[in-house]
Specification:
Layout: E1 6-11, H1 28-42, H2 47-52, E2 55-66, E3 75-85, E4 89-97, E5 103-115, H3 126-135
Antiparallel strand pairs: 1-3, 2-5, 3-4, 4-5
Length: 153
């Protein structure tokens, strides 16, 4: 659906909604993290490997544009990709679509590589950088696998 984006499907849980049955705005950053984590696994470098090698990718900025609401029990797809890769930063871009493929959210997170020991910005080591360079050129993907099936009613 979106060139170079990696998809993951989620089902909206009741705890993620407000009294009106609409997903609360604070949930979307969590979904972005789910998408980013799935992308890092797909690229061959799970985030835990960054931490094991002494590098944190801290969120320096988050921009989220809400276009339409997601609702309780909707199946949504979080589409994630690496948009930019600098010497010390990574920029991820996201789209969240609803059950009919309609665009619900557009978002971006900017991350700074930080040395775990010193807490200071650091250059992204080549072995951590390579999978994200690959992710920059991922081919378009087909339809993502479905989320957890709905229980029978």
């Amino acid at each position: 659906m979106f060139d170079g984006f990696f998809p993951i499907r989620l089902r909206v849980r009741y705890a993620e909604t407000d009294q009106m049955g609409v997903v609360h705005h604070s949930v979307y950053p969590v979904w972005l993290e789910v998408g980013r984590t799935a992308l890092s696994h797909a690229a061959g470098m799970p985030y835990i490997e960054w931490e094991n090698r002494g590098v944190y990718l801290v969120v320096a900025e988050l921009v989220c544009r809400y276009r339409r609401p997601a609702r309780y029990d909707d199946e949504v797809t979080v589409w994630s990709r690496v948009r930019e890769l600098g010497s010390r930063r990574v920029v991820f871009e996201y789209r969240i679509t609803g059950p009919a493929g309609d665009l619900l959210v557009e978002a971006e997170t900017r991350h700074l590589a930080v040395d775990r020991a010193s807490g200071r910005p650091t250059v992204i080591p080549p072995e951590l950088r390579a999978p994200f360079e690959t992710a920059l050129t991922l081919p378009p993907v087909g339809d993502p696998a479905p989320a957890t099936p709905r229980p029978a009613r």
